[in-house]
From TrEMBL, chains A, B:
Belongs to the FAD-binding oxidoreductase/transferase type 4 family. It comes from the Bacteria. Keywords: FAD, Flavoprotein, Oxidoreductase. Residues 97-279 form the FAD-binding PCMH-type domain. PANTHER family: ALKYLDIHYDROXYACETONEPHOSPHATE SYNTHASE, PEROXISOMAL. This is FAD-binding oxidoreductase. PROSITE patterns: FAD_PCMH.
């Protein structure tokens, strides 16, 4: 079936230096109010940075005539492609010390152009940094060092179309440069959805999700995007190819799984056939308070080890619940959500609440909400990245609003000289309680020691499994003016050491990029390290693709 | 937690040439009765082959003194490790034309010994064929050609222990050489189960399942063993390593997924931490008859695209249903089963039956059986590989009995000179009806043309997905006496051509081995082919590991 004729684009202005849309940024007064919550921050916000204040310089190379129409050397475009959106990127912009500005930004519109750009780059020793929405928080889209003659940022967002839809097999062929809302809008007329809603949904692309094994909507079972991949098209300097559209296969090691998580180091993913779903018609959600975080962990484990498969199963510790407005009495809060296109989910929610109660949880019955969307909305589900439900004012909706607002608030605090960042991991259940305690204690102590200010270290579980969970930590502390990057790097080094000591992964879904290389190198088993290096040599013989991620 | 002290072993005798246990083989009279069903077969069965009738010869090399205690040159052991259990293996044994007999059979008891054997083999140009239960049906455990000085079969079944159990995270560290019943017996005292029940369950090992991405118990969601892997230990000639125990990770491409499906060509999997489950306490099953196979396909698709997640969802076409005794009136039969350790599954079964009825299915209500094992058996589930339920005499149980008996009957027919074999594939739903029709028609026509006898080509769906299904075909036809291997190879070549034309995978769960190389080479995308070759060169520089599978 042919797909929709054109991809919609937002008319709002993206920030070149901070998260998301500029019209959603906190203003100076809100920044000051945020800063007042954190002792030791600045009296007034750092000014919003301007590209004109950067020393961008002339590009080291210009493209050949045959590629000129694809490549820009415009300073604004180059600045907007210099970094991702980690705290350390935001503060580097605020301090006018950005990472290496790429010399060139390319916007290919098809596979042939991607291949041509790779050919030219390989011949001229030009580093190529694949770039989707640019929302990396691990240094995944910047260049470090000076081993190449020039740096080209390969922006794929002009390739943003849903090219084919197979409604029988519920799948679609989608170009890698489609941002979340862009692809969902094209699927909507067919009654289907990819239903992959990372926090960055509006500002990240399918290709970025695939290349980083992004974590999405589902808190259980299909947590990463990996499982929704039917086929990948990959262009490497050495060869291009497309895996067959298959629901499953036992023919050798999965060819797609080598490129999922390859972060642009092995090739450029230009399109994928993705598995879709019907929009859910039945939903039910509830929030459950726990006085004791450790009993809450037991409750979540019981739910994760059942076959209830909640779509949402996020446990917020007391600090996280307070910050998001989900609780004000020192309770931990479990946000539970079920959804289905097949039938009502009230029974599953009730069973999950029973499990939570057996571990000391208190459900606020007024807030447990079942929604039969087929009945109340004529089958139209509200498909906002984090679906709103009818329980306005509940802990569930408070958390959901805060979830989308958090990165903006982080940038507001950054303007107040605060160090505010998140990191995430995963470990088996036997290690989870001690791991969370160690991160809180040791990272908090390190932040105090490094800055002289008391730090906040909060934790939530974003995804849960029968055999473990993915804790997600938020750290906030006043920085040392002008040395915020160094302060954060020192704090993060302590965090990395704690994760390694507990054999908890250096990343559950933020990817490795450049910032997690030390932890990744320790974690990666040697046979796979040898295989990955060999694959890199074979596919990228000139070593131009995203140098420094995953491998040296 | 320490594991159980010793691994149980069966006292029954394994057949060196045919499927399973010798005491389960059809006798001459049963063989003759089977042969009478297939026109053109022999008047009396070929004799049971004897090792003494093979010309085995002296081993080309002997092991060094340091390894002598691990290695045998006993002719019986060598003959029993010469081939797997495909039809072409059985008929080669019956015709006293086995594949290359390995020179040596090693039985290492630990990782150090595996590494020592690989070191010695690498230094002396000895091919090493990892061998678990030896149930390969794709030529995965034999040697072809003469490029090496000698051939060593690396039998891992002495490494059959459950070494650690983590009941909190519901996982266990299990040695790769444990046969299905051996590992389940060790898990049973802890109330846990791996619940991976391929047809070969009794005669295949964990390591074999991992190396071939075996298909197991579940017809939906977790169909292959891949998803139950928490960590792998792999020994390669170049390096050994163990991935961290993680419930999930986004740190680079999955290191385990490169070795899952690597079929012994990249390294030897010696142990794995596996995700376990509670034994189910609630079960319900039903069989549903369809007059129209195409409407049955639609029904199965509707169930696969719901979130009901049946554990069993096997659709038998009319021929398959007749052979297994599930139906005698030309109906296709859908065998549905649900199970849970969390709560009753009757509602899920009822919803699935409703979906089937909406597509013309007729459920025999007397046979829809819900079993609350917690109530009726004090919590003890019968954990036979294909769980028996209370509906004795039903289509469900008829099919289940036939499922386990089928490979034995195949060998009985082989003794009658018949060509009887299976092959399986997977494709997206849009291709399924035409694919099944083309296989039936073209393979049936080819078999008739090649043999001069009418052929039976039956189909069942073994695993189903929201975006597609895995059809499994059985072919039976009288062979040309003495040329059965060639007949089958010619028929299989036609099957492979049909699969390729429909872009259906060359294998859903039987693996590639040597028999599927041509189809696999056509299917594998070029970037992955380059990466896999490079990984092979890096990990197995002397090219001693299972030469000929996956790669030349």
């Amino acid at each position: 079936m042919p797909a929709t004729p054109s991809a919609p684009r937002s008319s709002r202005t993206r920030s070149w230096w901070g998260w998301g849309y500029t019209d959603a940024h906190p203003d100076d007064a809100e920044c000051a109010a945020l800063g007042a919550l954190l002792p030791g921050t600045l009296a007034r916000p750092l000014p919003v940075p301007r590209i004109a204040d950067l020393s961008i310089g002339r590009p080291a190379m210009t493209p050949p005539p045959s590629l000129t129409h694809l490549v820009t050397t415009d300073p604004s475009a180059r600045a907007a492609h210099a970094m991702g959106k980690a705290y350390r990127d935001v503060i580097r912009a605020l301090r006018a010390r950005p990472g290496r500005i790429p010399d060139l930004v390319a916007h290919p519109t098809g596979d042939r152009e991607v291949a041509d750009l790779l050919d030219w780059a390989g011949e001229h020793d030009v580093a190529v940094i694949p770039f989707g929405g640019g929302s990396s928080v691990v240094g995944g889209v910047e260049y470090r060092g000076d081993a190449h003659r020039a740096v080209l940022s390969l922006d794929l967002t002009a390739m943003d179309r849903v090219l084919d839809i197979d409604t029988v097999s519920r799948s679609a062929r989608i170009q890698a440069g489609a941002l979340g809302p862009v692809l969902e809008e094209q699927l909507r007329p067919h009654g289907l959805t990819l239903r992959h809603f990372p926090q960055s949904f509006e500002f990240s692309t399918l290709g970025g999700w695939l290349a980083t094994r992004a974590g999405g909507h589902y808190a259980t079972v299909h947590t990463h995007i990996d499982d929704f991949v039917q086929s990948l098209r990959v262009i490497t300097p050495a060869a291009a190819g497309t895996s067959w559209r298959l629901p499953a296969s036992g023919a050798g090691p999965s060819p797609d799984r080598l490129f999922l998580g390859s972060e642009g180091a092995l090739g450029v993913i230009t399109e994928a056939w993705m598995r879709l779903q019907e929009r859910p018609r039945h939903k039910a959600s509830a929030s459950i308070a726990f006085a004791d975080f450790h009993r809450a962990l037991d409750a979540v484990r019981a739910i994760a080890q059942s076959d209830l498969a909640p779509a949402n199963c996020r446990l917020l510790d007391a600090g996280e619940a307070l910050l998001s407005g989900a609780s004000h009495d020192g309770s931990s809060v479990l946000v539970l959500g079920f959804e289905s296109a097949t039938g009502p989910v009230d029974d599953r929610l009730a069973t999950a609440i029973d499990l939570a109660r057996a571990h000391g949880g208190h459900a606020d019955d007024r807030l447990a909400t079942a929604i039969d969307l087929a009945r109340t909305h004529g089958g139209h589900a509200d498909e906002h990245p984090v679906d709103r439900d009818a329980s306005a004012g509940s802990a569930v909706s408070a958390w959901r609003s805060a979830f989308l607002r958090m990165p903006y608030l982080r940038d507001g605090l950054a303007r107040m000289g605060a160090v505010v960042e998140t990191f995430e991991t995963a470990a088996t259940w036997d290690k989870i309680p001690a791991l969370i305690e160690a991160v809180r204690t040791e990272v908090g102590a390190a932040a105090l020691k490094i800055t002289g200010h008391p730090a906040t270290v909060n934790c939530r579980l974003t995804h849960v499994y029968p055999d473990g969970a993915a804790p997600y930590f938020t750290v906030a502390v006043a920085g040392r003016p002008g040395a915020e990057v160094e302060v954060w790097d020192d704090i993060k080094a302590v965090a990395g050491e704690v994760l390694h000591r507990h054999r908890a992964t250096i990343t559950h879904h933020h990817a490795v990029g450049r910032d997690h290389r030390a932890g990744y190198d320790l974690q990666r088993p040697e046979p796979f390290a040898l295989a990955l290096r060999a694959a890199k040599d074979a596919l990228d013989p000139h070593r131009i693709l995203n140098p420094g991620v995953l491998l040296d």
